[in-house]
Design goal:
The structure is a single chain. By secondary structure, the protein is mainly alpha-helical. It has a domain at about 45-75. It is about 70% helix and about 0% strand.
Amino acid sequence: MWHDRDWGAWDWTAMTLMMLLFWGGLIALVVFLARAGGRNSHDSRTTATPDEVLAQRFARGEIDEDEFIRSRQVLHDTGPTA
């Protein structure tokens, strides 16, 4: 069975294949778990309303106060458009 403790070509090939299967399976499991964890947090997140997006942009400094007020008025304007 052990061929006098000398490893043959089949022994090295089998060991190499088993190590590749082990490490490949372990890496695939880690990737799967990482993606599954990210997917759950993304699915439970609600979509921000236009007012929230506008407020976030104002808070980050992307728009100034005048643009914030004008944009908010446009969002809430229910009159006819000309």
